[in-house]
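Usage example:
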Amino acid sequence: MDTPEFEVTISKTGKVTVEVKGVKGPRCLLYADLIKEIVGREEERKLTAEYYAQDGQVRIHTQVRDSSSD
Amino acid sequence: MSAVCVLTPLVIASWPAISAAISGAAAAMGFSMAASELYEEARPRQKKVETELENSEVVADAMSAGEKIVIRKGDITIEFGRDERGRCTVCVTGTKQSDKELRKIGEEVAGRVIQQFTYNKLVSELKKRNYKVAQEEVLADESVKLRIRL
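Running the assembly step on the lines above writes:
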């Protein structure tokens, strides 16, 4: 399993770019949101194929049926 | 990679934090700190251009009112201060440059101040949250690249 890491590039004009690597699925946005919280305002966000890849977690969906009403 | 985000830094801090960023940027660009009293001397044929640090706010405190920082390189003098709205102002003066050149210098220095401030804040906050800066690199275009891990 890849070690999650992210790269932050601060340009000489102050623009900040965050690239999240090694994290599949929506969890990657946690790191992007962390940097956004520290730095400031988000201008643009791009989600890549890795974002939409399965993150290996099991999700259980439950549904309760009410059989008492006919 | 899974996501790429572009952010615009908000420079909202107390004067000491912004001063630290100005000092760092000045050193990196070859400017030296100057006493503000020297700046107030009248200089002949001096041009002045004023701008401000984008998305900035100097949080008012007892020390920031009327405080200025002056940096100098050759005949270029740049004064940082705080206006009534709390914005960080940048005033560039010079004798040999056109207004356009002075404005460009002011914008370059302001950008580097924002870069330094953002760097300082990021490293400090990430350290508090137990993240580790695994690698740090200055790129050819003078960007600073940080590789961060848990």
